Amino acid sequence: MRYRPLPDIALQVGDALPFTVYDRTGKALLVKGHVIDSDLMLVRLQERGMVEETVGVPRAETGRVDDVRPRRQPERPTVTLRDAQDELTLIHRDLLAGTAQGATARVSALAAQLRDAYEQDPDQAMGLLQLEATDHRLSRRLMHAAVLTQVLALPSGLPADHRLSLMCAALTFDVALAPMSETLAAQTTPLSDAQWRAIQDHTLTSVELLERAGVDDAVWLAAVRDHHERVDGTGYPRGLVGDAVSIEARILGIVDIYSAMIRPRAYRDAQPSRIALRDIFLERGQRIDERLATLFIKELGVYPPGTMVRLANGEIAVAVRRTTDGAHPQLRCVIGKDGTPLAYPQIRDGRNPDSAIVEIVPASQYRSGLGSLHVLWARGGPAA
Fold this sequence. Notes:
With about 375 residues, the chain is of the alpha+beta class. It is built from twelve helices and nine strands.
């Protein structure tokens, strides 16, 4: 028997399958007549399902071709991580080389795509990037920072144009460090004098690179210049105090701290999100804006989306959605008690003693076995 991918027809939750679905080895997954009971099942069918080669495309009762609905695609962010990362890397390269034609438009377009992904599904946008925080690649970290700015910008009431400018700043605030970012992440020895000067100067150098490329957005440039300023005056480059630091720069400073701490360095492991948030909490009202720090911690919760955790029963799960109770996010089990990745991530209730969270685990240990990450945020699915 020969098989081919599912016909290009609409399938929706609640539909009965008009044919038997097989995997690529010819093993029957679901028999004809089985009812699709969740978005999770729908995503898996569209990604992996095969049908017998002789199966035709079912049609409506009239038999007209134009009565066949197009296949329903699962909701996903509007930009893929790989494409966005590649584009941002190119933008950084061109800014450093002084050849970034249309830099404002290019960065703004990427920021708008990430903004749309966040507005479509905030937990998924944050979670996908949190799960990818397994190294210190600059472009990926700055994308994560850009999405995280919206956690504070929206509830703070920033107007739409300022929110977009802030995301542009997040995508470019460390561009001057791009040539040395990999070296710094891998370095275990003390900084050289040249490295120290480059770090102290990088905010002003990044602004110079952006201005040279034609960026004249005052909100964007101020956020880049001042993201290392601290409200108690201990920051740099100008030692600003209190409200002299723009709210955009204060937001960017917080997400910079968080996104850096949860990524590994050669001299330390990645810090669990809970530790990073604890450190921000301890700095609130001192070096970090107290209101924004408190809001950031409240909005992310104890286990931000994308955090991998070990459950009391030995399973490994991913926190996928925040709840009103920050200590009990929605969970999907991805690795069973025996260490085997599950074909279908299954819902777990962390309030049950058997599936209670016992610790955060490094995503780097399990990320490679997860397969498609988008399915984690599909609605519905089997629960236990």
